[in-house]
Design a protein that fits this description.
Length: 374
């Protein structure tokens, strides 16, 4: 990736601004590249070792939180199967709330819902006589899971319909799961490595939740994702690797480590490991992880014993490249001619408007371009 001449100066400015303006509670995690110039230099050096490259096709409007703030965080994708061109990309601003974008990256809706971090969604949640899309997000404002509804007919997202108070030490990563019996679950983790699982139900007029169980990892967890087809939960533990466990509420709480997701066993893994997403098609099933330590994305083949099959980076094109990604999401649905094999959406930690640093945003990448590399 070609580094712009002002990049190092810009990073220094980022660090100074964050140190002065970040009024959020301290997180129990190691510093990231934006907070440590030596980590930034190392990340750029390690990124140069990755040869596989793609370019973003589209980028969203930037979040309103000013440049210099680490704000945009995690995306989710809702595919409108009746009118794919009107699919919706969700993105959190952890300083402000929730954005909804169209496939061109334009803002459709903003919900002032608090300090939202990770987000996920599942279709088919029956409420008010309508099959709706249930959305869940971790909310640092009140240490809760915030629930929303997306009406597939009006394409409007509700305001917060419920806040589920969590017992984890500072809500952080979050994901959802729908099992074979169409039960809806939410997983949330915290700074102390605790993971909670909740079941969400509805009687058509009211929404209810039930605490199911807890799991525990050794240190700071971040992104999580569930493979609804296999019933496996995957957890990114930033300084260790990716773990997996049963997603069933009555399943084993034992977590097993994916061997090639560790720095010890894979030279292309460089901590921190952040966002996770699963690409599922008729013949392929991949786990994708954003690796902040070298500004890359690692891909594992879930149909082949979680084998690591390669890493790629998002380089500069007509849209700027991507560095230090937090959350990611992917869909295999062929939404249009730009994304004939699906779409990957990633948060961009250092968004540029020409040669100037802008507020953060999200980038869209065609899965076809990634598949050609794999």
């Amino acid at each position: 990736m070609k580094i712009r001449p002002i990049f190092v100066l810009a990073i220094t400015l980022f660090i100074v601004i964050i140190a002065c303006n970040n009024n959020q509670p301290p997180q129990k995690k190691n510093t990231e590249a934006r907070e440590d110039s030596s980590k930034m230099a190392l990340a750029v050096q390690l990124q140069s070792k990755i040869s596989k490259k793609v370019k973003a096709i589209t980028e969203t409007e930037a979040v309103k939180t000013p440049a210099g703030e680490d704000a945009a965080d995690d995306p989710a994708i809702w595919i409108n199967k009746f009118d794919p061109e009107r699919s919706i990309i969700l993105g959190t601003d952890k300083k402000a709330g929730l954005y909804a974008y169209n496939l061109n990256g334009d803002v459709l809706q903003f919900i002032d819902a608090g300090l939202l971090n990770n987000i996920d969604l599942r279709e088919g949640f029956y409420f008010n006589n309508t099959s709706q899309v249930l959305i869940a997000a971790s909310n640092r404002s009140n240490n809760s899971i915030s629930l929303f509804l997306l009406n597939p007919n009006t394409l409007q997202i509700s305001d917060t319909i419920m806040n589920i108070k969590s017992n984890v030490d500072g809500v952080y990563g979050l994901c959802m799961h729908t099992d074979a019996n169409e039960n809806f679950y939410v997983f949330v983790n915290g700074n102390n490595g605790l993971i909670e699982q909740y079941k969400i139900t509805s009687n058509n007029q009211r929404i209810f939740y039930k605490y199911c169980r807890s799991l525990k990892v050794n240190s700071q967890a971040e992104g999580m994702v569930v493979n609804d087809f296999s019933g496996k939960l995957y957890v990114a533990v930033e300084e260790e690797g990716i773990y997996k466990a049963s997603a069933a509420p009555n399943g084993s709480s034992k977590l097993s480590l994916i061997k090639e997701s560790t720095k010890t066993n894979n030279e292309f893994i460089s901590y921190d490991i952040e966002g996770l997403a699963i690409y599922h098609s008729a013949h392929k099933e991949y786990l994708i992880a954003s690796i902040q330590g070298n500004f890359s994305y690692a891909v594992f083949d879930l149909k082949n014993n979680d084998k690591y099959i390669g890493s790629f980076i998002i380089e500069n094109g007509h849209i700027d490249g991507v560095e230090e990604t937090d959350g990611i999401e992917v869909s295999s649905f062929p939404v249009n001619s730009k994304y004939p094999k699906g779409i990957l959406v990633v948060q961009d930690g250092f968004n540029y408007d020409r040669d100037s640093i802008a507020s953060q945003n999200f980038k869209y990448i065609s899965w076809k371009d990634i598949a050609d590399l794999l």
